[in-house]
DNA sequence: GCCGTTTTCGGCCCGACTGTTTTCAGTCG
């Protein structure tokens, strides 16, 4: 039983309680607990064993008992009972944008609607417009909501989100009355995936901004349009929200729209304790604004040091900011090189020379060319002979460049028994060895863990790449006993990669923080397959920052001679 | 259901937009 499984059960309970019209604060308690369980870096089973569940914020004696029941028996009587009253289909209906618990309940009680399909049929047949509060427009919105749900308004990766946001920001900059503009929301917090794009604007002419925004040619559908706030859907079904605010409130609004929701709630509670009121317009004492123009001013007025967006998740950052003890997080400019780049010797698209040129342009001091190993035929893995030729090419280039070190590396495959795809005599010759799993993802947790552990124990393996194998929208992370892996990494001096590729971002933020707790060290790599993708490193940096990592945790912030001391002896 | 240098009971973040309603409930973030 994983933390996410427990969180999922609590969320389901919250949904059912909402439909039943239960006490909203009780519902929020389940949601809060779900979120904190998911965010905690400690394994829920361990917390049960050590009787430390109530250390999780939002978990009291009642929820602790429920967690124990879930972890020990695999199910929860309370939920089974709830499910008897509310059909699953009704809970699913809450996923339709525009349908909340009240509407779902109304549709169920008055018309016996039990799921999304039935709702769609009844709506088309004109049978739901007789209900109180539901007329033509509402029916239209429900049908549109169902369409959105069907098309799967999923989450997009961080790069896609960045590109869309930049596009709209640049468009809006054409408005001459526009003063400030910033993407906010989970994108500004650099969350691994983003659901919609929030953009904050300050302007003397809010209506003009709203008109211009909602009439852009890329807009397919206007979901809402008011004098200061509008939401649209792009042709790719991405929701973009723009909010206009005046300069005096810009910092407060940026803080508010950056979130997270949980971070905001805690800040408001803090403000209340000080007898202040916090909203998106500023921080107020007796209706007099005492801060609002900038975020820095807001945090200061709350008695906190500035909290960077990546940390704003209510994972302890506010408590540390009160004591002015927040860590100094790693920054892009700390990076001195990387180790995981594929060239056209295997499945990459750029020559080694092109990669080296790019790395030099980025100011790197070293770059490792790590192509796939022989077993990975589809990825053009290199056999012994090809390796020799590649080595010659690297040696030739080394003579040409004296301002950057070109390292001879590999991404060697870990087979289904945990054996490596190259023998030791080949690995010994490498400057740096990365090991990774590329097949056999469906093995048991125990087997998967043992494969990784065995690789870590190899005296030539320096780094484990993309540890959990997750690919957004394509593959779930594979089953792994992470604590065991982290322990072995620490013992064997094996480094863990933070993979910057937007579909991977693996390790994720929570696992980074957990691994750091075990004393593990990291490298941030791109897994670039063309030279240009070396620029993706910024996304890996953001994961590390969200994982509370500092420069000291990341080996490729060090100069090369120091890096060598952190690699295994050859 | 949680939580407490105001509290073990009585609070629990706050505002914009929509559609339906003549003043507001529902939904969303």
Tell me what the structure shows.
This protein is α/β, with parallel strands linked by helices and 570 residues long. Helices cover 43% and strands 15% of the residues. The strands form four sheets. The chain has a seven-stranded parallel β-sheet with strand order 11-12-13-14-15-16-17, covered by helices on one side. It has a five-stranded mixed β-sheet with strand order 2-4-7-6-5, sandwiched between helices. A three-stranded antiparallel β-sheet has the order 8-9-10. β14, α20 (445-457) and β15 (463-464) form a beta-alpha-beta unit. The protein is globular, with a radius of gyration of 26 Å. The model has no long low-confidence stretch (mean pLDDT 91). It binds one DNA strand of 29 nucleotides through α2, α4, α7, α9 and β6.
Question: What labels would you give this structure?
Answer:
Beta Polymerase, domain 2, 17 strands, 24 helices, alpha/beta, 5-stranded mixed β-sheet, single chain, 570 residues, 7-stranded parallel β-sheet, DNA polymerase, domain 1, DNA-binding, Beta Polymerase, domain 3, 4 domains
How are the secondary structure elements laid out?
Layout: H1 3-19, H2 24-39, H3 44-49, H4 61-73, H5 77-85, H6 88-93, H7 101-111, H8 116-124, H9 136-150, E1 156-157, H10 158-172, E2 178-183, H11 185-188, E3 193-194, E4 197-203, H12 206-214, E5 219-225, E6 229-234, E7 239-245, H13 250-258, H14 261-273, E8 277-279, E9 282-285, E10 288-291, H15 295-301, H16 317-322, E11 337-341, H17 352-361, E12 366-372, H18 384-400, E13 405-413, H19 424-428, E14 432-436, H20 445-457, E15 463-464, H21 482-492, E16 495-499, H22 509-517, E17 522-525, H23 537-546, H24 560-566
Helix pairs in contact: 1-2, 8-9, 13-15, 20-21, 22-23
The protein binds one DNA strand of 29 nucleotides through helix 2, helix 4, helix 7, helix 9 and strand 6.
């Amino acid at each position: 039983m994983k933390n996410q499984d427990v969180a999922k059960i609590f969320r389901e309970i919250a949904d059912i309680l909402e439909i039943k019209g239960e006490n909203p604060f009780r519902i929020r308690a389940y949601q809060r607990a779900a979120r904190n369980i998911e965010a905690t870096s400690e394994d829920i089973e361990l917390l049960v064993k050590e009787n430390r569940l109530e250390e999780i914020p939002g978990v009291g004696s009642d929820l602790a008992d429920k967690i124990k029941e879930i972890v020990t028996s695999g199910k929860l009587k309370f939920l089974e009972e709830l499910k008897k009253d509310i059909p699953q289909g009704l809970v699913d209906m809450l996923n339709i944008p525009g349908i909340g618990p009240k509407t779902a309940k109304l549709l169920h009680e008055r018309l016996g609607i039990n799921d999304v399909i039935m709702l769609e049929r009844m709506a088309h047949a004109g049978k739901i417009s007789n209900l109180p509060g539901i007329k033509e427009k509402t029916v239209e919105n429900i049908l549109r909501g169902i369409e959105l749900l069907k098309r799967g308004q999923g989450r997009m990766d961080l790069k896609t989100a960045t590109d869309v946001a930049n596009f709209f920001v640049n468009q809006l900059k054409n408005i001459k009355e526009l003063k400030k503009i910033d993407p906010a929301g989970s994108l500004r917090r650099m969350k691994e995936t983003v659901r919609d794009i929030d953009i904050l604007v300050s302007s003397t002419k809010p209506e003009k901004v709203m008109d211009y925004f909602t009439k852009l040619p890329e807009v397919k559908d206007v979901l809402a349009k008011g004098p200061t706030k509008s939401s649209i859907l792009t042709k790719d079904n991405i929701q973009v929200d723009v909010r206009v605010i005046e300069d005096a409130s810009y910092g407060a609004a940026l803080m508010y729209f950056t979130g997270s929701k949980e971070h905001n709630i805690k800040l408001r509670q803090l403000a209340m304790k000080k007898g202040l009121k916090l909203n998106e317009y500023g921080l107020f004492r007796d209706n007099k604004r005492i801060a609002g123009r900038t975020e820095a001013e807001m945090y200061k007025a709350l008695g906190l040091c500035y909290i960077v967006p990546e940390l704003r998740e209510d994972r302890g950052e506010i408590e540390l900011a009160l004591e002015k003890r927040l860590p100094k997080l790693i920054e892009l400019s700390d990076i001195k090189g990387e180790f995981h780049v594929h060239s056209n010797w295997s499945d990459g698209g750029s020559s080694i020379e092109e990669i080296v040129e790019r790395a030099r342009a980025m100011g790197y001091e070293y770059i490792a060319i790590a192509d796939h190993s022989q077993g990975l035929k589809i990825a053009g893995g290199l056999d012994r002979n090809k390796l020799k030729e590649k080595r010659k090419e690297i040696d030739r280039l080394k003579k040409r460049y004296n301002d950057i070190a070109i390292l001879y590396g590999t991404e060697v495959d870990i087979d289904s028994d945990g054996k490596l795809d190259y023998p030791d005599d080949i690995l010994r010759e490498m400057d740096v060895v990365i090991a990774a799993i590329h097949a056999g993802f469906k093995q048991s947790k125990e087997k998967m863990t043992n494969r990784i552990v065995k690789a870590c124990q190899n005296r030539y393996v320096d780094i484990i790449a993309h540890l959990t194998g997750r690919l957004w929208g394509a593959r779930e992370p594979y089953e792994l006993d992470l604590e065991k892996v982290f322990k072995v990494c620490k013992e064997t001096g094996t480094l863990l990669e933070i993979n910057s590729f937007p579909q991977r971002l693996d390790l994720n933020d929570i696992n980074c923080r957990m691994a750091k707790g075990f004393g593990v060290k990291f490298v941030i790599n791109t897994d670039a397959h063309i030279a240009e993708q070396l620029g993706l490193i910024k996304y890996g940096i953001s994961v590390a920052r969200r994982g509370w990592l500092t420069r000291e945790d990341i080996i490729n912030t060090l100069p090369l001679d120091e890096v060598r001391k952190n690699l295994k002896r050859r």
